[in-house]
Amino acid sequence: QGHLVESGGGSVQAGGSLRLSCDASGNTFSKHCMGWFRQGPGKEREMVATIYTGAGTPYYPTSMKGRFTISQDNAKSVVYLQMDNLKLEDTATYYCAAARQQYFSRGGGLYLSDVGYWGQGTQVTVRS
To answer: Which of 37, 59, 125, 127 has a 20 to 30 Å separation from 10 between CA atoms?
Structure first.
């Protein structure tokens, strides 16, 4: 059994920054794709950033471009999410995710149905 453990969440002022870390220990670090999702109260879980780990190629939904940056450290099996210029609507629980082993990209980043492992989440609260 592997583990995905997020850290780095907290409460920040609007316009501030946070860096989330995902420790993908054991065999949970996907050789294909890792991603970050978030889920706010009453909202669906949505992907905010994906990284194709082989080449380190990022993918972002249009709304996240310019504010969120995903990166990886393959040697440490860690994936990061740098969040800048945070807005109130970014308040959510953020989850690290690893693609299932039988994964092939179909475009659009990591989809919910392609997730093999989830972290337990870390809370991000953006305040005014």
So the answer is: 59
**What is the spatial distance between Cα 77 and Cα 63, in angstroms, rounded to a whole number?**
27
| Contacts (Cβ under 8 Å, ≥6 apart) of 124 | 9, 10, 12, 18, 20, 38, 83, 86, 90, 91, 92, 93, 94
Q: Which of 16, 10, 11, 18 is nearest to 85 (CA)?
A: 16
CA pair distance 27, 24, nearest whole angstrom:
8
φ/ψ (deg, to 5) at 113? -70, -15
Q: Which of 99, 90, 97, 96 is nearest to 64 (CA)?
A: 90
The residues with which 88 forms a beta bridge, in sequence order, are: none
Residue owning tokens 């972290």: 119
Instruction: State the pLDDT at residue 52.
Output: 92
pLDDT for 2: 64
Report the distance separating Cα 118 and Cα 4, nearest Å: 6
Collapsed DSSP state (helix, strand, coil) of residue 16: coil
Instruction: Point out the residues of the chain with pLDDT beneath 50.
Output: none
